[in-house]
Amino acid sequence: MNKILIIDDDRELCALIKRSVQAENIEADFCNTGKEGLQKLREQEYQLVVLDVMMPGMDGFETLEEIRKENSLPILMFTSKNDSISKVRGLRAGADDYLTKPFDMDELIARIASLIRRYTR
Q1: How far apart are CA 24 and CA 85, in angstroms?
Q2: What is the pTM (predicted TM-score) of this model?
Q3: Are 47 and 71 within 8 A, CB to CB?
Q4: Where are the chain's structural domains?
Q5: Which CATH architecture describes the domain 3-119?
Q6: Which tens digit of pLDDT belongs to each residue from 23-64?
Q7: DSSP line for 101-117
């Protein structure tokens, strides 16, 4: 079974995403800081990371840069920032996809499934 890591400081959103992907037979863990996410990635194997940009302390861009130093798994970033500068920055820093909040849960699930399918062949 595929397993993803959700890194977002919004605990309710993490729980909602976790329940939604589990309904699609995808396991999920979540954490609320970039530092905690990096630790989980060192301890466990995941097929994808869903990463929020706006987090206290280490933001999503910094977290992404640290992940890319050690890991090439697919990363889907999301944020409430809808400007093209943030999207381009995330994609250039190594994100594989980018989604803006608010988002449709079905679209998020479809993007997660697509990235897992593409990168885990």
Answers
A1: 32
A2: 0.94
A3: no
A4: 3-119
A5: 3-Layer(aba) Sandwich (3.40)
A6: 999 999 999 999 999 999 999 999 999 999 999 999 999 999
A7: SS--HHHHHHHHHHHHH
